Predict the 3D structure of the following.
Amino acid sequence: MSLIELTGAEITSLLGRLWWPFLRIGGLLWAMPLFGDQLTVVRVRILLALVLAALMAPMLPDMPVVDPLSLSAFVLAAEQILLGLLLGLMLHMLFTVMSLLGQILSLQMGLAMGIMNDPSNGQAVPLMGQLLIMLAAFLFFIFDGHLVAIDIIVESFFTWPPGQSIYALELSRLLSLFGWVFASALLLAIPAVIAMLIVNMTFGVMNRSAPSLNIFALGFPLSMLMGLVSLLLTVAGVPGLYSEFTGYVLDEMRSLVGGGAP
C-alpha cells in the first residue's frame, strides 16, 4: 500500500505511534536531572526525545486513534506530558538527597557561607552540596540508572497506555518521597552531625574551664578539620547507601505506573 492510498485514520495511527511516546519521554527528560538542567540545550533535549520515541515505536502496543484537532487529543497530550513530569520529578528527588546532605554538612562545618551559583538549576547552593550532586551524577550513571529509567518508560506504555485516566495513579507514592528525601539525607549526615556536636560540646567545656583561651581562633580550624574528616567518612559510605536509594526510587517509579494497570 502506498502512502497515497492511506486513509486519514491510518495516517493518524502511524503518527500517534511516534507522537504519544515523544510527549511522555519529553516530559521525563524535561524534569529529569542532568538531562533537564538549564545547561542542556532545549533542541538537544527534543531531538533526544524524538530519537528515543522512534526507537521505541516498533516495540510499543497500538496507540489510540484520536483526531489531532480535537479536545480529546489535547487532554491526552497533557496527560502524557504530566506522567513524564511525575516520573522525572521522582528521579529529581534522588539528587535532592545529596544536595540536602551537602547543606547539612556545610552548616555543621561552618562552611554555610561557601555558596556558589548553580548554573544547572539557576539558584545558589552550598559548595559542598554542589560537589555531592556531581558525585550523585557519576554514581547514577555507574549504577545504570538512566537505562533503568528508559526501561520504566517503555514498560509504562504497557501498564499505563495512553488513554487511561491519570487520576487513577497512586500519587501517594510520589508524596511519600518528599518525606523520604529528608529522612535519607539525615541518615547519611547523622554520623557527621553527632561528631560535630561532640566537638562543639568540647569547645563549650573548654570555654567554661579556660575563659582566657580564644575559643573562636582555636575552634574554627579544629571544627573545619573535624568536618573534613567527617566528610571523608561520609563520602566513603555514600556509594553503598546511594545504590539502595537509587533502587528504591526506581522501584517507586515502576510502581507508580504499574499500580494502576488494568
Notes: The longest helix spans residues 215-258. The chain has seven helices and two strands. The mean pLDDT is 78. The CA atoms of residues 167 and 217 lie 59 Å apart.
